[in-house]
Structure formats: structure tokens, C-alpha cells
Amino acid sequence: MLIRFRNFVSLLVMPLLVACVSIDSMQIVSNAHATTSEKPSCDIPVKNEQIVSTHGLDPAKIAFLTWNIYKGDGQGWQKDLAVFAKNHDLMAIQEATLDQEFTGLLETNDFNWIMNSAFQMNGTTAGVMTVAHLNAVYSCGMKVREPIIRLPKSTLVSYYDIEGSDEKLLVANIHGINFTLGTGVYREQLEQLYDAVKDHHGPMIVAGDFNSWSDDRMIEVNHLVKRLSLSQIEYPINNKTHVFGKAIDHVFYRQLEPLSNQVWQVSSSDHNPISVNFRFKEKSTGSMMVSDRF
User: Fold this and answer.
1) Structural domains in the chain plus CATH codes
2) Confidence of residue 2 (pLDDT cuts 50, 70, 90)
3) Could you tell me which of 97, 232, 279, 286 has the fewest CB atoms within 10 Å of its CB?
4) Which pLDDT tens digit goes with each residue over 142-159?
């Protein structure tokens, strides 16, 4: 199994970097109009009626990717991101940076993006970013400080329309706490996410860099998965990034059918991106919502 040590080596040098880091006062920022909230609950504001969307994600195929992009520090990330952008409808990115090179590349490929910032390093904002070819209906963000290095990790929850349905797809993009002596704070971060999305009864994707590098951490992740009635994906070729023999990036889902998946091996980041093609399943009948474009 592939073992990566970058996060653990960085703990040794982090005291030298803290002077260059500031906690970002921004929370959620976007390049498109979207209703957002910084409240603990991520429920969509209640509307008087449910409206069937005529413009949304294609229910027959939703191409999704999650990737920790290593703050764009790896060589060739621009080429890799451009390829992924052309082949996916939704991307959950961790360690995204709010600079013109990064956001400009996304916008060139007709992506709207929304970010929940974590901190600024040398004046550049970093955090989790979810991008899509359509606007998010609503988004909510949370931050939790690492207990040892005191830098935040952020989580972003966004809702997207599905064409031909009044359902919304909830996408939770998480960057898990890394440096802890136990699992208490890690558990609290996952509990925070659970509380934010537990009242959503529609389709859901929960994905990101969970930093689940121990058995105890995976116990907490699996507890979250069970409570939210999520399913795990079986990978025919498992190139997922591993630390201490444990996969740290994951995609979990509900009320969707995975059609195919691939874990891309890249040198532009210390994380390999995970790509999954989904089909939407209506909850009421269990039947597939198939568009005429399928």
C-alpha cells in the first residue's frame, strides 16, 4: 500500500510556518449567486411548495470527483485539473486556493465555485471548494481548529438541483482534522457534519480528505456513514492514497447508483483523486430517474 508522509512531516515544521499564517475572517465566498449560511444547521430555507427543476444535474449521469489538490504546490496540477474539469459535473476539492490561476482555470471550463475558507498563508486563502456547472441552491460552512497546530479545517455543504425532480442533491465536502492525540476532536468534527445534514432525506454525497489514517478514526467515519444511511464504493482498482496503511480519501453516497469509478494516479498532488459516475434514484419508488439524454 502506498504510504504518504507529507502531513506528518509538516507537523515538525509547522511552528516555523505559523508566522506566515492567519485565520481567515472570510467564511463562504463564491463566484456566483448562492444563498449561504454560517449557522450550525444546513437545512435549505423552507419554501411553500416543491418545484420540479427544469435545469439541474442530469439524473442519468452525475460525474463526481473529489481531490485534495495540495494547495496547487505540485508540478502539473493545472493540466490535471483542466482534464478533470472537462470530464466532471461536480468536484469537491480540498486545499483549494483562492487565487486567479486556480479560479480562472475553473471559470474557463464554465464552473461555478463556492469555497469555505480555512486560513490564509502568505496572503492566499485556502480551504474546501465545491465546483459545478450550475449554481448551488444553498450552501453552509463550518470550521474546526486543529487542537495541536491550531489551524482550522473546513467543511462545506451545498445543495444542487436535479433535472426533472423536486429533490436536491446534498454534497458535503470535508477536510478532516489531522493532528490529534486521540479521536475526541475528530469525533466532534464528524458530529458537527452529522448535525448539519441529518434532516436532509434526499440524495447525498459525503466526500473528501477524511484523514482517516487509523483504525480508531475509521470507526468514527463508519459510525457517521451508518447514521446517515450512506453506502461505500467498491473500487476494482484501489489506488486511493493511504497513510499508515489506511485510505484517507473517501466518497460515500445515498439514493444514487454508482455506475463506474476510477482512482487516478497523479504526481501533481500527494492525494490521488477519486472519480465516480452516479445515477440518481428516486426515493419514493426506488426507480431510476433517466433523462432523455441517456
Assistant:
1) 6-43+50-280 (3.60.10.10)
2) very low
3) 286
4) 999 888 877 889 999 999
